[in-house]
Write a structure and sequence with these properties.
It is built from 23 helices and no strands. With about 450 residues, the protein is mainly alpha-helical.
Length: about 450
């Protein structure tokens, strides 16, 4: 179905007299919206609890470093994780049916659980260091594809039943309290990896860390089965792959605000992904083994994210979607500035700033969702991931090469320049994009029902 053939939804983005609750009730009953919100909040909290592994960076980089990898190879898991975020655009085309959204999310989590168990077993085996590095890298790639696809399909649930204001409120709660679980997970990671537990030493400590992600992901899969998915009455059709990708890409790049957002998002990646080198730089700044500080780094990172989470959700609800993207980019740039000037223990503050800036991964797509037609949300979010994935995937490894040849500070200066340029671009975007209200057509709303997929 071509874009011009699809039903248009009236633009009510500037109608500030209509409450978000009244608008949402037109889509699905409030008790089902709340059920989705509760499931979403718990799933995000569990992701945060296992963040030391799910957020492919410090743990993987320090583990590969411990196994004897170069700085470039230690950054490779992060690169492949981002590269495999191109996978969701394929599944967004292959599975356009709302009735299957829930099933795709569940399968993505199940695949991640299996891979976590496999990594744990191989780390405890007599396999060579090279084989273990390779498997850790493969695990990162699988997480990028599986969790990335689950995330893109999750935006369908968030966008079809919530207004921008509703999303801002649930984001404030979820990404305010949620990072607290990441702090707990990070402190637990520190306890596991500090080699202070009798009988639990490398590589068994890392094996336990990866193995514990399997039950976490299985619980997430069970919670995802509770999502309510409104199914439209009109038949849904799969477009030809070429027209879906390239036609959608043409529609994407013809919109100035999408292009500006895309370039700023790439520049944010170039700035934020100096994070791995910031952790490896601890050897020079504090004279300590980076692996021993991995847990503390993540605790500070998610503590900063927790504080920022409350503020950003409130800001988006009050001022519009741009506020979240702008403030997270400012926090990332500030973190890089701190890297360049701090010495001693105060250097660790940079990881809290990086944590606050990392929420850009939520608020850049949120701006895109607010500016998209409801029927194009999944396509546009997956295209954003596709376009960003290839250049962004090279950034961590590029930072590693820069550190190998010119030292850490050369990469830090490059990251600072990228962050400043991203801020300049975001300044040109409107605070509230010309969005379309997330409402179903009358005939769709009258027959919307709960997905029956198992």
């Amino acid at each position: 179905m071509n874009e011009q053939d699809q039903p248009k939804v009236p633009d009510t983005s500037n109608d500030l007299q209509v409450s978000s609750e009244e608008e949402t009730q037109e889509i699905v009953p409030r008790h089902l919206v709340r059920r989705n919100q509760v499931s979403f909040a718990i799933i995000v909290s569990l992701i945060y609890l296992a963040a030391p592994v799910f957020y492919v960076d410090v743990v993987q980089a320090t583990l590969c470093d411990k196994l004897g990898a170069s700085k470039a190879v230690a950054n490779l898991p992060s690169s492949l994780y981002m590269l495999l975020t191109i996978v969701p655009v394929f599944f967004a085309w292959l599975i356009p049916y709302m009735r299957l959204v829930r099933r795709v999310i569940v399968v993505g989590y199940a695949i991640g659980a299996v891979m976590g168990a496999i990594v744990a077993l191989v780390l405890m085996s007599p396999a060579t260091a090279a084989a273990k590095i390779a498997l850790v890298t493969i695990h990162a790639a699988v997480l990028g594809g599986a969790l990335g696809t689950s995330s893109v399909f999750g935006w369908e649930i968030l966008s079809k039943g919530m207004t921008e204001v509703d999303r801002g409120k649930i984001f404030s709660i979820t990404y305010g309290f949620g990072p607290g679980f990441a702090v707990l997970g990070s402190l637990g990671t520190h306890a596991l990896l500090s080699e202070n537990i009798p009988g639990l030493h490398f590589p068994y400590d890392c094996a336990m860390l990866f193995g514990l992600t399997a039950p976490v992901l299985l619980v997430m899969a069970l919670l995802a089965r509770r999502y309510y998915v409104p199914i439209p009455a009109q038949p849904e059709h799969r477009q030809p792959f070429v027209s879906f990708v390239f036609g959608g890409l043409w529609d994407f790049i013809r919109q100035r605000q999408f292009v500006v957002l895309l370039i700023a998002y790439l520049l944010w990646h170039a700035s934020w992904y100096v994070f791995n080198n910031a952790s490896l730089n601890l050897r020079d700044v504090l004279g300590v083994e980076p692996k021993l500080y991995a847990g503390w780094i993540d605790a500070l990172r998610f503590g900063g994210k927790m504080v920022a989470g409350f503020l950003l959700g409130w800001l988006v609800a009050r001022r519009g979607a741009k506020g979240g993207a702008m403030l997270t980019t400012l926090m990332t740039t500030t973190a890089v500035l701190w890297l360049l000037g701090a010495r001693g223990q105060v250097y660790l503050v940079t990881f809290a700033l990086f944590g606050a800036g990392e929420l850009a991964g939520l608020y850049y797509p949120n701006y895109l969702v607010s500016a998209s037609e409801p029927e194009h949300v999944k396509r546009n979010v997956s295209l954003l991931g596709l376009i960003v994935a290839l250049p962004a995937a090279a950034i961590p490894t590029l930072h590693g090469h820069i550190a190998d040849y010119w030292g850490f500070h050369a990469g830090f200066w490059a990251a600072l320049a990228a962050g400043v340029l991203a801020i300049v671009l975001l300044a040109a975007l409107p605070y509230r994009p010309p969005a379309k209200a997330p409402a179903l057509a009358d005939e769709q709303r009258a027959t919307a029902t709960t997905s029956t997929d198992d």
